[in-house]
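Protein folds are increasingly written down as discrete tokens. With that in mind, we are printing a sequence and the tokens encoding its fold.
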Amino acid sequence: MSIFPKPVSPKSALGDFWTYFAQPRAHKWPLLGLAMAITWVIVWVFILDGKTNTGPRQNKIMYFQSWDANRSDAVIIAKQKADLAKGEMILEKKQKEMQKVADMVGIEWRDEEARNRAKRQEALTAINKMLDERLVKAEATEKSGKTASTTASPASKTTAQP
């Protein structure tokens, strides 16, 4: 039992291939070269892809910022405001980079950016207003001598039963 159908065999396929290339045709060599080049490019890409992300991963050390357990709410809120401003600066910088790329590619971004900037500014104003209100409340609480731990609701406090 043969793998190939009746009229096809490796011997007849090689014969057909040889007959085709024995004929004088002007386009046969450039097409053969192109076919071989495309085949080797595909094989080369598979070889390169096989080596991508196959090595063992290095252990990543992650450092976490530690805070004083006794810091006040006002200090926490002030840090949140500073982090928000820092995040906005980083976002602006990244947007400038992406806008340069969009200009090089020819993407029109200015109209959409103006709309998004207005929405972002509105959201930032609301967030900053909320943080300012909380900061004033935290500073007032701090001045009156209360802390976050003493103002917890009685339902959240549990008593140990022997």
The CA atoms of residues 30 and 91 lie 51 Å apart. The two ends are 86 Å apart (CA to CA). The chain has four helices and no strands.
